[in-house]
Amino acid sequence: MRPNHSPAPLPQKPALTRHGERRIARIEDLPPPGIKRWVIRRKAEVVSAVRAGIISLEEACQRYTLSVEEFLSWQRSIDRHGLRGLRTTRLQDYRATEQTAADETPNG
Question: Torsion over CA of 43, 44, 47 and 48, rounded to 10 degrees?
Fold first, then answer.
């Protein structure tokens, strides 16, 4: 007879937000300081952590040497276009679309 023993629990994957970004539960889950290459996933993790209150905007900017404007642009890109908006190759396409829409809006 086999002894009753339950298998070790599998580590849970972090939940995803409605935009598909990984939820960060602890500051240890964040990318390490000194990142040189910002891939979509890392940007989304930092935005998610700030939104969840894991780290403040000021702390995130200091930790990753970001300007507030750069961080806010990541946040806007996620809000408007989802994670795909964080692709640097797509930024020009999205900005051009937004500029065209702004040009077509009547003034006043």
Answer: -150
